[in-house]
Amino acid sequence: MRVKKLIMMAGLMAFAINASAQSSGSTDIDTNGWNCVWAEWNPSTFKVDQKGADNQSFTGIAAGYSKAFSIMPTSPTFVEVGLGLQYSFYEEEFQEQRSGYIWSDEYEDTWWVTTHRSLDMWSLKVPINLLYKYDIANSPVSLMPFIGVNVRYNFIATMHDNTGDNYGKTSEQNLFDSHDMGSSKNTWNHFQFGWNIGVKARFGKHILAGLSYGNDLSEIAQKTKISTTTISVGFAF
Asked: Is the pLDDT of residue 7 over 60?
């Protein structure tokens, strides 16, 4: 339901902007595309669709290049295609109760163990967006609402656990390796596909800023998808 509402909002926004531009009677329509190098901050969440399971927040940072080109000669409508490198990470600390026969074979002992866990993940992503560019009258600012898809290839994902039981040693798991994960069922997926919706603002000729929200349509792990808020800045040329 949320996806449908967001898509409808984007469509209405684009329609309203188009109607406003046409009603102004202006024939000076800028259909020139642009190139852009950009950087992003990506606060994200692993959303787990399992009873009793908690979602996990994490952070991503990314940088890349994109190119926008006009698809309508009489309308400032553009398709923007990009390629970026993203690094995602999180850290957490939790306690677990352990039990076993340590001091005696007759009496079971229990104790608490603290684990420090961290994740490092590297991904390549290809954003493909449809934008409508609206130039604000008597202003160097342009607004560009957009909707699009993201294709992501996760090529490194490593989990690090440092547990008191392990005498301070850190164990590592390759989340794409079935041996490390115990079975192919628990192994993470390399490829992700999702949607996003948002708006960009262009200040003068060169500065771009954007805000968007998106969700994966495919799972990165069993019953787990990623939702992402993206805050971006870029240099257009």
From this structure: no
Alpha-carbon span 121 to 89, nearest angstrom: 6
Other beta carbons less than 10 A from residue 162's beta carbon: 15
DSSP code, position 29: -
Whether the CB-CB separation of 77 and 45 falls below 8 Å is answered with no
DSSP class of residue 187 equals: P
Backbone angles phi, psi at 9, to 5 degrees: -65, -40
Distance CA(165)–CA(231), nearest Å, equals: 40
**Side chain identity at 237, as an amino acid letter?**
F
235 token code pair: 């240099």
pTM, two decimals, is 0.83
Residue 140 contacts residue 204 (beta carbons within 8 Å): yes
Mean pLDDT within 96-103: 66
Under 8 Å between Cβ of 114 and 171: no
Is residue 56 within 8 A of residue 44, CB to CB? The reply is: no
Tokens of 60: 């991503």
Q: What is the pLDDT of residue 24?
A: 47
List, for residues 218-232, the tens digit of each pLDDT value. Answer: 999 999 999 999 999
Say which residue, 227 or 93, is predicted with more confidence.
Answer: 227
Instruction: Look at the chain and count its residues.
Output: 237
Q: Angle at CA 229, nearest 5°, toward 49 and 69?
A: 120
- Dmax (CA) for the chain in angstroms is 90
**Smallest Cα–Cα separation from 227: which of 58, 63, 1, 81?**
58
CA 17, CA 27: separation in Å to the nearest integer?
15
Q: How far apart are the C-alpha atoms of 195 and 23, rounded to whole Å?
A: 31
